[in-house]
Amino acid sequence: MAQFHIQLPPEYMQKLGRDMADVRDAQDNTRVELPLYPEFVHHLMKNMPTPVEELHHAATGMAGEAGEVLDLSKKVWVYGRELDAEKFIEELGDVRFYYQAMLNFFGVTDEMVQAQNVIKLRKRYASGHFTNEQANARADKPALGEKRDKAAPAPERRYMGQRHEQRESAVVGRWFASRVERPDASNLWNAVRRIGDKFEEYEGTPSHDEQTIVHLCIQLNERSANNV
To answer: I need a labelling partner for 35 at 20 to 30 A (CA). Which of 23, 116, 127, 182 fits?
Structure first.
């Protein structure tokens, strides 16, 4: 189990308690327009044109803020700076904001996510404690060959020469296509063309990411290489 714990200054812990009480009082006070946290986040998230862009906004926001936490840790570890607990908590709050946006997107609660995590990890760590053996055995994961539901129909194969629905890949396509005007566009074009050559002979079942690449290749193949 985790063996270390940072003891925060008592005055800072008291401030955290007061701030939390103030927010709860404001949420309970009908005269103050401070909604509960899920709705609070909902109002502050920027409206995006499509669901996939909204999901991507929340996901990249959460990853970006987690990177801020990592950078703070790096400065303590590598540069020997004093641990700034207040800044850590501020950045954790930003991670929590985008995490809540993800919960809102899927219409679930934090308790639901916690329950799924507990169910998974109780299977992985049957003893109730961490061990390297259990971590490596990953008892919660199906054995190789058992991952695909035998009753489920085989997914449809898609090839480079076949058009398929644009779905969310069109959003990525717009971003990707906009880059072909860059000075290094010739290198980009050659890279995409090599990807396209690979998928022309693709014999497996592409993942969603691979299908996105295929779609991008179809889009960019419609452009003339002379135009980029």
So the answer is: 116
3-state secondary structure 148-159: CCCCCCCCCCCC
pLDDT digits (tens, 9 = 90+) for 151-171: 555 545 444 444 444 444 444
| pLDDT confidence of residue 26 | 86
Q: How far apart, in whole angstroms, are the C-alpha atoms of residue 223 and residue 193?
A: 11
Whole-number Å distance between alpha carbons of 184 and 135: 44
Residue 20 lies in a domain: yes
Domain ranges, residue 193: 169-227
> Which amino acid, 219?
Q
179 touches 188 (CB < 8 A): yes
Within a domain: 136 = no
Q: Is there a domain that residue 127 lies in?
A: no
Helix 110-124 to helix 85-106 angle (10° resolution) is: 100
Residue 192: left if φ>0, alpha if ψ -120 to 50, beta else—which one? alpha
Considering 59, 90, 109, which residue would you say is the last residue of a domain?
A: 109
Q: Which of 26, 46, 22, 48 is nearest to 36 (CA)?
A: 26
User: Which residue type does 42 have?
Assistant: H
Which pLDDT belongs to residue 161?
40
Residue 93 counted as domain residue: yes
Gap between the Cα atoms of 142 and 84, Å rounded: 42
Per DSSP, the three-state class of 184 is: coil
| Total domains, the chain | 2
- Tell whether the model's pLDDT for residue 199 goes beyond 90: no
